[in-house]
Amino acid sequence: VCIHRVRSCSSIRFIKSKYVCVFDKSALKFSHQQRLFRTSPVSCGQIVQFKLSDIGEGITEVTVKEWYIKEGDSVSQFDSICEVQSDKASVTITSRYDGVIRKLHYSIDDIALVGKPLVDIEIDASKGVASEDVVETPPMSHEEHTHQEIKGHKTLATPAVRRLAMENNIKLSEVVGTGKDNRILKEDILNYLAKQTGAILPPSPKAEIVPPLRETEAVPAAPKDKARRIPAPVPRPIAFSGKDRTEPVTGFQKAMVKTMSAALKIPHFGYSDEVDLTQLVQLREELKSLAEIRGVKLSFMPFFIKAASLGLLQYPILNASLDENCQNVTYKASHNIGVAMDTEQGLIVPNVKNVQVCSVFDIAVELNRLQSLGSAGQLGTSDLTGGTFTLSNIGTIGGTYAKAVILPPEVAIGALGKIQVLPRFNGKGEVFKAQIMNVSWSADHRIIDGATMARFSNLWKSYLENPASMLLDLK
Amino acid sequence: MVLQSFKNCLWLSCVLRTPKACFWSTAGGGLIMQSVSNDVYQNLAVEDWIHDHMDLEKQQILFLWRNSPAVVIGRHQNPWQECNLRLLRQKNIKLARRRSGGGTVYHDLGNINLTFFTTRKKYERMGNLKLVVKALKALRPHLDVHVTDRYDILLNRQYKISGTAAKLGRTSAYHHCTLLCNADKFVLSSVLKSPYKGLKSNATPSVPASVKNLFEEDASLTSEMLLDAIAKEYALQHQIDHHITLINPADETLLPGISNKTKELQTWEWVYGKTPKFSISECFNMACKDSVLDVKVNMDVKHGRIEVCNIDLPEQWLPPGLYSELVKSLTGSKFCPNEISTLVTKLLRVCPQDDELHSRWSLLCENMIRLM
Questions:
Q1: Interface contact flag, B76 A378, Cβ < 8 Å
Q2: What are the residue boundaries of the structural domains of chain B, listed by start?
Q3: Which residues of A touch B343 (CB under 8 A)?
Q4: Is residue A449 flagged as an active site residue?
Q5: Could you give the residue range(s) of every CATH 3.30.559.10 domain in chain A?
Q6: Best residue in B338, B365, B366 to probe A by mutation, most A CBs within 10 Å?
Q7: Lower CB density within 10 Å: C or N end of chain B?
C-alpha cells in the first residue's frame, strides 16, 4: 500500500508514479484538503461500512429516529445521514464519505450500537478512500459550500463567487483557484461547470492572446493580426440547477378543486359598475372613532354587507339556491352573507349570519370576530357553512374589475375592487375628487337575468353613494 | 465622569457592531450571551445559529434566555401525546419543537433557560449542571438542590426544578436546561396533559414529575438574580469577565440567516410534520334527533397527515357516496382542525342541499375536528 501526499501549488503538476492507478485532475484537486490517500486497486465503487462513531459520555447504544437519506441516494461528505437519540440527547450523524448509499442497517426505532455499521456507502473509485485519520475541519454545515480549509487557509472567494458556487451546488474545495493566493474566481467556477456540463464557455474578458496558427515560415507577417484577434462575446450560458417539484393535491387544494369544478357547471354572467363612495368615506371617518370607543374596528365591509342585504330584500332571487336537477328554487329566508378571506392556507369564506336583522355595528363586531379567528386558523364549521350570498373584497390586495366564481349552492357573488381617488364631473359640470370603487357581480344565468342583477346593483350602489338613504329602509 | 461613560457606550456599540471576527473573539475561553427577545422561536433559532456557525474551539458559550408562554416539545416527540393542543390554542400559548431530544416542558417568564455550547469533544452535561447547583448554593447556601443521574435538578430531594436536553452535531454540541423560578404551575399542569386515551406512538414519551418553583422555597429570589448568579459562576469557572453580552435574535446583520431559521421553526411541517407515525382510536357520542350514536374513529397519522381513516358509523347514516367522499378527502390531509374544517365545509357545498343531511354532516365533522 502506498501513501501519496500531493502538494498543492498554484500550477498543477501531475505526479507520475507506478503506484498511481486512476489519478486524474479531480483527484489532485481533492488533495487540497490535506488528506492521506490510499490508492485503491478496485476499478469500480468500493463498498465501505460506515460505523456509528462514539457519542460520548460512555454511551453504547442509541435509537435511530429519522433517516435523512434512503438506499440509492448520493451523499457528500458532511451531509446529514440520520438522527439518533440517546438519553435526552439528539445526535445528527453526518457522512464521512462521498458516495452512494447502498444499505441502511437499521429501521426507524431500532437500537443502533456504537462501533457497529450504520450504513454501507459505495465510494466513487476515482476519488480514493479517505483514511481514518481525516484532518477535522472547523464546524460548518451548509457553510461547506462557502468555506473550506486549503492547507490551513480559508478558501478565498468573493461573496458573489461563493453564491454562484452555492447556486450550482459546487463545493469550493473542488474548484481550482487561479487567482492570487489560490483565490477562486468566477471563471474558475464557470470552467468547473463547463467540464461538468460540457458547455462551451467564452474566454475570460481579460484579453487572451490566441496563439498564432502554425504556419510555414514562407507566409508573410499577416498572422500577427490573427494573433491579436479577440473572439466576439458569446452569450454566457446561465447555469441553473433548479428542479421541477411535484406534490400531491391534498387537503385545502383538494376541496378547492371539488368546489370549483362544481361551480363550473353554473352558467355565469357578469355585470360591473363603479360606485362613488365619497360620502361613505366621510361617514366612516366620523363613525370610526365611535366604534373604536366600543372596541370595534370599523371598515367599509359592514356597510357593503348591510347594503347588500337591503338589496336582497327587494330581489330575493339573488339569495336563493337552485337544486341539483334545476327543478326547484329555494328562496332562503336568512341573509347569511359570506366574506372571502385570504389566509396562509388559501381562500376561506366565513359568513355573517342573519344580516337582515343586524345593524351595521353588529356586522362590524361579527366581522372582527371572524377575522381574528380566521387569521388564527380557528374558524369553526358553523361559521364556514350556511352562506347564501358572498362578497369578495379583492380590493384590499389590489385590482379594479374581477370575475368572481359563484360558490355553490349560492347563485350570486360580488367582487369589490380597490377604492381609488379619481376625477369625476359633478352636477354643475365641475371636476371634483371622487372616491371610486368598482364592483363586479357574477350571477347564475339559469335563474337570474341581467336586468335583475342590474337593478339590484343600482339599488346597492344608491345606498352606498347616499348613505343617508339607508336610514329610510333599515329594519 | 462623562468621558468615562461615553467610552463605555462606545465599547458596547463596538462589541455589538464589529464584524464577526472581532465580535466572537473576546478574551478568555468563554462568552456569556443573553437574548433580548422572549419569543421562543427566535431564541431556538439563535441556538441553531450558534451551533451551525460558531467556532467553539477557542471559547465556549453560555446562552441565557426566557420565553413568553410556550410549550416546547423534544425533537422526536408527539405534540398530541404530550399536551392539550386545544387548551394551547385557546390560551394562545405557542407550541415549538426544539432540535434537541428529551421531553416536553412549559416555558413562561418565570422559567429561565440555559444553553451550554461546547465542541463535540468537550460535551459534558454533569459538569454544566453541577455549575448551576454551585451557583444556586452560592446565592442561597441553605437551598437543598442536587443533580440526579437522569440529569434533573431536584429541590429538597423531591421536586424537579430543572430538566435537561442536548443536541450533538458533527463538531459542536449543546446542552440546555430549564430552571423553574416563578412559573405558573397551574397552567403548566393543565397544558401538559394529553386528552387522548387511545393514542399509540413510538415517539419519545415524557416522564412526568412533581415540580416546584424556587420562589416557593425562597420568596426573595427572582429570575434576574438566578441568571446573574449562574453567569457569575460560569465566568469564574471559565476565567472570563462576568460580562453578559445582549443579543437581538432579529438582527440579521449580526446573525446572517437567522430569520430563515426562525421561520423554519414555525412551519407546520417542522412543529407537527416531524411527529413520528402514530395512531389514534377515540370514541364520541352524537346526539341526533332522539337517539344517541356511539361513534368510533381510528386514524393513522404519518408526518402529521392522515394516512388511514376509519369512522364506524351505522350504515346509511350518511349516504355511502358522501361517506367515501369524506374519507377520501381526509386521507392525505393534515391532522389539523383548521385544514379539516375548511375541507369539510367546502365539501358541503357540493352535496345535495338537504337540511337533515347538512346537520348530520356538521355534527359528525365537528366531532371529528375536536379530535385534532
A1: no
A2: 31-272, 278-371
A3: 251-252, 254-255
A4: yes
A5: 268-472
A6: B338
A7: N
The C-alpha cell that represents A277 in the structure block:
363612495
Q: List the one residue out of B321, B320, B319, B324 whose CA is nearest residue B309.
A: B324
Radius of gyration of chain B (CA): 25
* Model pLDDT for residues A421-475, shown as the tens digit of each residue: 999 998 999 999 999 999 999 999 999 999 999 999 999 999 999 999 988 887 7
> Is the ipTM above a cut-off of 0.90?
no
Cα–Cα distance for residue pair A257/A249, rounded to 1 Å: 9
Question: For residue A345, with 0-12 CB atoms within 10 Å meaning exposed, 13-18 middle and 19 or more buried, which class applies?
Answer: middle
Q: What is the Cα–Cα distance from A85 to B76, expressed in whole angstroms?
A: 8
CA distance A143 to A169: 12
CATH assignment of A46-123, given 1.20.1530.20, 3.30.420.40, 2.40.50.100, 3.40.50.620? 2.40.50.100
> Is the distance from CB of B91 to CB of B116 less than 8 angstroms?
no
Residues of A in contact with B353 (CB under 8 A): 321, 323-324, 330, 409
Looking at the complex, does the CB of residue A88 fall below 8 Å from at least one CB of chain B?
yes
Compute the nearest-CA separation of A328 from chain B (Å): 11
How is domain A162-194 classified at the CATH fold level? Dihydrolipoamide Transferase (4.10.320)
Classify the phi-psi angles of A382: left when phi > 0, otherwise alpha if psi is within -120 to 50, otherwise beta: alpha
A155-174 residue pLDDT tens: 667 766 777 777 777 777 77
Q: How far is B91 from chain A (nearest CA, A)?
A: 12
Domain covering B31-272 in this structure, CATH number: 3.30.930.10
Cβ contact A258:B347 at 8 Å: yes
DSSP string computed for A358-387: --HHHHHHHHHHHHHHHHHT---HHHHS--
Catalytic residue among A24, A73, A110, A449: A449
Looking at beta carbons, which residues of chain B come within 8 Å of A55?
Answer: 168
Instruction: Give the containing element (helix H, strand E) for A51.
Output: strand A46-51
Note whether B347 contacts A255, CB cutoff 8 Å. yes
- Residue B246: strand, helix, or coil: strand
CB contact under 8 A, A258 and B362: no
CATH number of A268-472: 3.30.559.10
The verdict on A325 touching B (C-beta cutoff 8 Å) is no
CB atoms within 10 A of CB B253: 9
Closest-CA residue to B98 (of B117, B124, B121, B74) = B74
As a CATH number, domain B278-371 is 3.30.390.50
Angle between helical axes of A251-263 and B337-349 (0-180°, round to 10): 10
Q: Which helix (H) or strand (E) element contains residue A311?
A: helix A301-314
Ranges of CATH 4.10.320.10 domains, chain A: 162-194
Q: How many Cβ pairs closer than 8 A exist between chain A and B?
A: 164
d(CA A354, CA B221) in angstroms, rounded, equals: 56
| Tens digit of pLDDT at every position of chain B (372 positions) | 444 444 444 444 444 343 343 344 444 588 999 999 999 999 999 999 999 999 888 889 999 999 999 999 999 999 999 999 999 988 989 999 999 998 999 999 999 999 999 998 888 899 999 999 999 999 999 999 999 988 999 999 999 999 999 999 988 999 999 999 999 999 999 999 999 888 999 888 888 889 999 999 999 999 999 999 999 999 999 988 888 999 999 999 999 999 999 999 999 999 999 999 999 999 888 887 778 888 899 999 999 999 999 998 887 788 888 888 888 888 888 998 888 888 888 888 888 778 888 888 888 888 888 888
- Which of A:228-257 have CB within 8 Å of B? 248, 250-252, 254-256
| Average pLDDT score, chain A | 78
